[in-house]
Amino acid sequence: MPIIGHLIKGFIEVRDKLSGSKDPIAEQKVVLDELLKKAENTSFGKHYNFKAILESECPVEAFAKSVPYFDYNRIDKEWWQKLHDGEADVTWPGRPDYFALSSGTTGKTSKKIPVTDAMIDAIRKTGLEQVFALSNFDLPPDFFELGILMLGSSTDLNKVEGHQEGEISGISASNIPTWFRGYYKPGEEIAEIDDWDERVQKIAEEAPNWDIGALSGIPSWIELMLQKVIDYHNLNHIHEIWPNLQVYTSGGVAFGPYKKSFNALLGKPITVIDTYLASEGFMAFQARPETDAMQLSTDSGIYFEFVPFEPEYIKPDGSLRDDAPALQLSEVEEGQDYVLLISTVSGAWRYLIGDTIAFTDVERAEIKITGRTKFFLNTVGSQLSVNKLDDGVQGLEEKFGIRIPEYTLCAKRIEGEFYHCWYLGTEDKTDDQELARALDASLKNANKNYKVARSKALKGVKVVSVPPSVFHDWNGKNKKKGGQVKMERVMGEEKFEEWEAFVKS
Q1: What is the tally of structural domains in the chain?
Q2: Rounded distance between C-alpha atoms, residue 445 and residue 111, angstroms
Q3: What domain of life (predicted)?
Q4: Closest-CA residue to 42 (of 83, 9, 3, 76)
């Protein structure tokens, strides 16, 4: 009988009942007030006069009027570079002990995003809130005694001039609480292995020694790890070696495109819980089973603002125009796409994280990620966000009975005419022309702007099918396997030329 599991589950259920209902709007006002007070005497706080903002009648409005929008390039050039020059108290008190390396999905060089002790505490706090939210899911007591396999980047961080650098998943895993280490797999020794293929090989070798109840990581890399374990032990599915696997916490990208290929590796259904952990912080997690939307973490060191995702507010490079309006949580509407802005305990201020979200439940502050500002395909007025592209690909999976876990595309000019050129990652054999016709028809039905574009400047759709391994090799060549690495869904023409040359090679 799982006595410890009963105790843990009971504690979580009692704790969840005692915590009461959340008031996200009130929590956000408190968070902004705390951020401004804490950073008042930093160089940034003095420059933008946080003291005056705090003393104003409405600090929320004064903050929005006083502080401009920052994307990574701007805040790094104007402020964060000073940290690398040895300055302290720049955008947050002191100097950060960590920098999260993030090439995102478009950059050629790694961004270096400060991660303070306050942010690590905030990530832990949100992680605990997610654990407590498990009381809302119908999980048996023995689940709370099983191992949790977290597949992220290496925890062997680089030591650079008084701080450490690595991906956020590696930084987080190297700071796990002592009480959690008994559950944590693959364990500290394997987690420190820098080479991803070597690390996954070790996981496959050790797999029979672990009783895994939950997985955590980006879908594409989790799939490759599971396939490695299955192949190494000559299994039919992963439940033959981990029969008690019940939960997968996904993150980094939308799970939808991976659902079919992921389920093919299982012997029975499991609970999928979405999370939103970025290099800049732990933004949101799925808190209840009635929805696959995620609840914003409104009380853990991050202040959110929302800019309506309209073409007139977005520059060609995906950054915001200065006159774009930013809304508070109290002003948003359900179903509208917004560009997400954050101000954090790591010293990011009105920072454009690059994601677009939509609210499914404003009262609960529940959202879905709908895409990336740089992946908004609008070259010829088609106005396709990533969620619309995902829907189109999932439609192909259903229509043709195939699996397409990866894809990318570009609005490419061919002999003076624009085409949407798609590469679909699939092991299944299907006629590419049939796929192109079905994809085109599906997007016409789902998006009126796309239908108009197809009648004018957008000449047609082309599809090329390639094995999913090509996408993984591309990521390995250009960035690094595993961790937070994600595939570009939409490429510019210059990057797409590199991609097509890579595919041919």
Answers
A1: 2
A2: 39
A3: Bacteria
A4: 83
